[in-house]
Prior knowledge:
Largest sheet: 9 strands, mixed
Low-confidence stretches: none
CATH architecture of the largest domain: 3-Layer(bba) Sandwich
CATH class of the largest domain: Alpha Beta
CATH superfamily of the largest domain: FAD/NAD(P)-binding domain
Shape: globular
Mean pLDDT: 96
Radius of gyration: 21 Å
Number of helices: 12
Structural class: alpha/beta
Amino acid sequence: MARTDAMVLGAGIVGTSVALHLARRGLSVALVDRAGVGEQTSYGNAGVIEGNTIFPPAFPSDTGRVLRIALKRAAEANYHLAFLPRIMPWLLAFRAASQPDRLAETAHLIRPLFSRAVAEHEVLMAEAGAMHYLRKTGWLKVYRDKKSFSALRPEFDLAAKFGLPLQALDLAGAQALEPSLHPVFADAVFWPQAASVSNPLGVTRAYAALFATLGGIILSGDARSLHRNGNRWRVETNEGALDAAQCVIALGPWTPDLLKILGLTLPLAVKRGYHRHFLGQGNAGLSRPVLDADVGYLITPMEQGIRITTGVEFAARDAAPSPEQFDRVMPRARELFPLGESVDGKTWLGSRPCFADSRPVIGPAPGRPGLWLAIGHAHWGLTLGPATGRMIAEMMAGEPPFCDPSPYRAERFS
Length: 414
């Protein structure tokens, strides 16, 4: 039996960042996952570090858009009909959280965490020798519909209040940044303080390698074996039992499996998403991620090729893949950018763990001494991994956290 000061369950970007921050404080730490480091949800994201984020994703307010989604004609969302009864309570809570006053409240509550997103990655990347993955080229959002662009005024106003720079661009201005884009949109917004990475898996693995150099150990095991053993927590690994005084759950979409065993109930849902890689035609390329906002997909340059990510799919986490959104996305994506052949002919599927109020849970698990939660990061696991790791490590070490952790407490759902 091995003993450590702390163990972290889940080796995605969030869990790896937590483990790394704990090890940087001199604790003996084990990182436990049944898969390889960064190989699940953390692999398939769009690679954007969204330091500019103001409003979270919102339930559509436009009736026509809702109807298109309901009729399965929209690129930004899909659903499995049999899953709707299970997800409906969460969707209703999401709709309530999408009211303008609630969105404004959320924007203020999440800003301190997001404001540290890029800087915290830079600290870890510098130490891990991973700066070659980082692009500080911002990201571009293009709008085909004048009405949707005009609706951005509240976001622009809050950006000014928060001191976040942006550039509203016409077609010519956007094409000056990304000459390969076709003129199928009218307006764009450039957010210069966003960053991106060319290989999210490479970043997570670099952080894990740094963790190992600091004495951290990486073990294979099933988090569902977690149980209380006296005054410590124990999990079974392929190398035997592991005990730790403190345990952090960072299992992403697999969190509910363990919470149920522990008798904890939190309203965590899953949004599934897909990606594929393509070549660019001729010399066509991109310098940054581009969001086709009115259609609902993102196109971004990666080491593997040009990555196209779909919008969300509401389905059981373990249901068979149904990448029909690509049938709706690809014609619109080819309108915007000269995509060539598929790189490998594969479609990746991942799941995002989401709370309806678009805030993660970061902090102690209610009524479970020594147990901590770093879960529910939704679309922002890559963005917030290092900031989450720093915050939870500070709390576990008895240090003042760099920002107020109360908006992220699990007790808000009590």
